[in-house]
Amino acid sequence: MLSSKQRATLRSMANGIDTIMQVGKDGVTDNLITTIDDALEARELIKLKVLDNSAETPRSAAESLAQATGADVVCTVGTKFVLYRESKKKKKIII
């Protein structure tokens, strides 16, 4: 669980990163969970977007992906959301 100060730090770091994945019309699938799990291990902090044709809301997609991958939801703004999970192998972000 992140403190509000850690969340604020991660949110400011996320402003500079690009969206790397999208949740489409199929919503949260097993394939998407696996891909996001790998991305979190490699990057620790990732930004995603929920497409307009998706049945998921950004908040519900963020929460279900966070639960499935063991990540924390940093923030949700509009159609985008940010996830954070500390790498098991090599920590890249110090908060």
Q: Helix amount, in percent?
A: 25-40%
Provide the low-confidence segments as ranges.
Answer: none
Query: How would you sum up the global shape?
Result: globular
At the fold tier of CATH, the topology name is: Translation Initiation Factor IF3
CATH architectural type: 2-Layer Sandwich
Our measurement of the CA-to-CA distance between the termini, rounded to an integer number of angstroms, reads: 12 Å
Assembly annotation? single chain
From the alpha-carbon coordinates, what is the Rg to the nearest angstrom? 12 Å
Structural class based on helices, strands and sheet pairing: alpha+beta
Order of helices and strands: HEHEHEE
Average the pLDDT over all residues and give the rounded result: 93
Number of strands: 4
Largest sheet: 4 strands, mixed
Structure, described:
The chain has one domain: YhbY-like (Translation Initiation Factor IF3), CATH 3.30.110. It contains three helices and four strands, in the order αβαβαββ. It has helices at 4-14, 30-43, 58-69; strands at residues 19-23, 45-50, 72-77, 80-84. Strand 1 (19-23), helix 2 and strand 2 form a beta-alpha-beta unit. The model has no long low-confidence stretch (mean pLDDT 93).
How would you summarize what this structure contains?
Helices cover 39% and strands 23% of the residues. With 95 residues, it is an alpha+beta fold. The protein is globular.
Which features would summarize this protein structure in a list?
single chain, 95 residues, alpha+beta, globular, Translation Initiation Factor IF3
